[in-house]
């Protein structure tokens, strides 16, 4: 047990970094789904003002316009 406790402490940073990466990927996927649904609704209803609002919201919530590069 003591041996595994030492390993856990040694790789604690690696595990935390991996968790952060997974969290960023999940957020990226949610953003992509939200963007896709927003664009679909805009084209479905032919509401171009809504399309502009969707793009503005994506730009605001995309963490300094790095929506694609954040998933790497």
Give a nutshell description of this structure.
79% of the residues lie in helices and 0% in strands. It has 72 residues and is mainly alpha-helical.
Question: What layout of secondary structure does this protein have?
Answer:
Layout: H1 2-10, H2 12-45, H3 48-61
Helix pairs in contact: 2-3
Outline the structure in words:
This protein has one domain. Helix content is 79%, strand content 0%. The mean pLDDT is 73.
Strand tally: 0
Shape: rod-shaped
What's the structural domain tally?
Answer: 1
Strand content: under 5%
Number of helices: 3
The averaged pLDDT comes out at: 73
Distance between the termini: 36 Å
Q: Low-confidence runs (pLDDT<50, min 5 residues)? A: none
Task: Profile the largest sheet.
Answer: none
SS-derived structural category: mainly alpha
The topology string of helices and strands comes to HHH
Helix content: over 70%
Radius of gyration: 19 Å
């Amino acid at each position: 047990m003591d041996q595994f406790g030492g390993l856990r402490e040694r790789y604690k940073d690696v595990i935390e970094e991996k968790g952060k990466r997974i969290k960023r990927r999940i957020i990226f996927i949610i953003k992509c789904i939200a963007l896709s649904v927003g664009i679909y609704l805009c084209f479905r209803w032919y509401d171009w003002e809504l399309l502009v609002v969707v793009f503005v919201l994506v730009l605001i919530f995309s963490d300094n316009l790095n929506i694609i590069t954040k998933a790497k």
